[in-house]
């Protein structure tokens, strides 16, 4: 069952060769359902899958070396970021992806020639900030972010007959599919019938008991606009209210009801499914995360939580509509 889920819902695949004869691997982020996949399989299952993919690509490099009479030892990676969203920066997913990147760098240090990153949305710099510390400097230098002329750049490095129609080339499946789905898997949402666990194990930094009829307020100083405020929490035994606010006055003493409501308070069944979410702070200031147990007249709630403030990228990424290229740091 687990292998069936991975084969059907993990996107990507090998398709064609670049102009030097290196195999091309496509990674598609948009169709991925990170939470569904991690509810249906373990990190080790994904690591084993990526090892199988990498070994297959190494064998393909050896075949190409024999066929072309020259040494082919690295692949070209096309990373399609269309559809990148908040679900993809879910912390367990980032941690799993980080382990895969670390495994790849530790075991296949020379296996990557270049990475073309295409269709990057506005939130890409924030997502990249979360994973870049898993990458060595040499790998970072191989990542090239393409602008609106990405099809033109891909054709400069890949013969159109080796490039799918959907990516600006002439290659299609025998049935005319421009996305070459016989070679590139497009993933999708994992049906809950495949889930084998109720939740993904998360390490929390703090646990606190909130008395019946009371609230807990956590304050975080966000110094830079476009910072990411990220939280995870779980409750024991029953639901808990949660909302996010921003102080409009300096100093203490301001009531939650007088603050700016950023995320309306609502009750979460965090005793059944741990909550994991985030928001981009458009303005700096003191943000208040409020756990609300005021509606409970009988029951105290134990809440375990982890909260992070992630600064914005050091350098703004180019407008995706621009035609230039950019190497990431």
Automatic annotation (TrEMBL):
Name the Gene3D superfamilies for this protein: CRAL-TRIO lipid binding domain (3.40.525.10), GOLD domain (2.60.120.680)
- GO-annotated cellular components: cytoplasm
Using the record's annotation, list all stretches that form the GOLD domain: 193-309
- InterPro entries for the chain: CRAL-TRIO_dom (IPR001251), CRAL-TRIO_dom_sf (IPR036865), GOLD_dom (IPR009038), GOLD_dom_sf (IPR036598), SEC14/CRAL-TRIO_domain (IPR051064)
Q: What Pfam families does this protein map onto?
A: CRAL_TRIO
Enumerate the SUPFAM superfamilies for this protein: CRAL/TRIO domain, Supernatant protein factor (SPF), C-terminal domain
Domain CRAL-TRIO, residue spans: 2-175
Extract the PANTHER family matched here: SEC14 RELATED PROTEIN, SEC14-LIKE PROTEIN 2
> Under what name is this protein listed?
SEC14-like lipid binding 7
| Gene encoding the protein | sec14l7
């Amino acid at each position: 069952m687990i292998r069936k889920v991975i084969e059907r819902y993990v996107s990507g695949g090998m398709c064609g060769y670049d102009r030097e004869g290196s195999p091309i691997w496509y990674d598609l982020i948009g169709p991925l359902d990170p939470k569904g996949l991690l509810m249906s399989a373990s990190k080790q299952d994904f690591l084993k899958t990526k090892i199988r993919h990498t070994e297959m690509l190494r064998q393909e490099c050896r075949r190409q070396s024999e066929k072309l009479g020259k040494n082919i030892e690295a692949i070209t990676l096309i990373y399609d970021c269309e559809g990148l969203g908040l679900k993809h920066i879910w912390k367990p997913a980032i941690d799993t992806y980080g382990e895969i990147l670390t495994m790849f760098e530790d075991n296949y240090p020379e296996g990557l020639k270049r990475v073309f990153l295409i269709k990057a949305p506005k939130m890409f710099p924030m997502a990249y900030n979360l994973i870049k510390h898993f990458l060595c400097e040499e790998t970072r230098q191989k990542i090239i972010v393409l602008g609106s002329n990405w099809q033109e750049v891909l054709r400069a490095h890949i013969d159109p007959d080796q490039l799918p129609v959907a990516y600006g080339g002439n290659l299609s499946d025998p049935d005319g599919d421009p996305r070459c789905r016989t070679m590139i898997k497009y993933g999708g949402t994992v049906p809950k019938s495949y889930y084998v666990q109720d939740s993904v194990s998360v390490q929390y930094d703090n646990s606190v008991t909130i008395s019946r009829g009371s609230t807990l307020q956590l304050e975080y100083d966000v110094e830079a606009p476009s910072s990411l405020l990220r939280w995870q929490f779980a409750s024991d035994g029953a639901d808990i209210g949660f909302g996010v606010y921003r102080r409009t006055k300096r100093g203490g003493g301001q009531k939650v009801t007088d603050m700016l409501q950023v995320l309306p308070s609502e009750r979460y069944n965090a005793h059944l499914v741990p909550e994991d979410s985030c928001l981009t702070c458009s303005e700096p200031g003191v943000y208040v995360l409020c756990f609300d147990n005021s509606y409970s007249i009988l029951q105290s709630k134990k809440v375990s939580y982890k909260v992070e403030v992630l600064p914005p990228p050091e350098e703004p990424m180019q407008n995706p509509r621009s035609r230039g290229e950019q190497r990431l740091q």
